[in-house]
Amino acid sequence: MERVRKTVESGSPLEPRIGFSRAVREGAHVAVSGTAPIGDDGTTVGQGDVRAQTVRCLDIAEAALREAGASLEDVVRTRIMLTDVRRWREAAQAHGERFASVRPACTFVEVSRFIDPDWLVEVDVDAIRPVPLRSEPYVGSRTAGGANRTPWAPRDPRGGRDGYPAHRAPRHRILRNSRCAVRRRWRGRPPSRPSPDARGPVPAPARWSP
32, 20 in Cβ contact below 8 A? Predict the structure, then answer.
């Protein structure tokens, strides 16, 4: 199975220096790095305001999710890191405004400090998007394990013999199985052929074979 990996860059000068991406998508899984409350001009947004900084962090995370082909509805876990956990309600208010209907798993933790002392909060997000990327190629193989299925498609639960789905079995297998069934049915005396003029059954010839 071919692995498909996509990285999302935000243009931060720290990304090449540290060696990380804003977000990484591996198959259906999307991981967003810890986002800090940094504005487009590089300055800290909402200094001293935990709620405003949390909103900014979630904005950055949401934009990274969209670029990776996911959305907030696909989020399964969030982590809120605070320098003062006693102010968790301010961050929780901003979090609830985004995820009230999604209800992902969430953790609040306290840290000693961040890279910039003006940052009061950071947020990281994990999501699962069970839809293939548009750039993913169609990869399949006709082997004993399956028949031309894409790497993200699970095996058909109705699978037939030799790993082929029951409704997509190769034609030669259908014909072979049909002949075997006919031979078993005609193992005894062959059935009578229908009469052409519909006046009754006509006995089969003495040497008749399917």
Answer: no
Instruction: Give strand pairing partners of 147.
Output: 142
16-44 pLDDT tens trace: 888 999 999 998 999 999 999 999 888 99
pLDDT at 68 over 90: yes
Q: How far apart are CA 117 and CA 149, in angstroms?
A: 52
Residue 139, in any domain of the structure = no
Residue 88 lies in a domain: yes
Other CB atoms within 10 A of residue 25 CB: 24
Question: What number is the average pLDDT over the span 75-92?
Answer: 97
Does 165 map to a domain?
no
Q: What is the CATH number of the domain that holds 81?
A: 3.30.1330.40
What CA–CA distance (Å, rounded) separates 18 from 14? Answer: 6
Structure-token match 């399964």, residue found: 76
- Give residues with Cβ within 8 angstroms of 87, minimum separation 6: 50, 120
Q: How far apart are CA 49 and CA 61, in angstroms?
A: 19
Distance CA 116, CA 54 (A): 15
Task: Quote the crossing angle between the two packed helices 50-67 and 88-99, to the nearest 10°.
Answer: 40
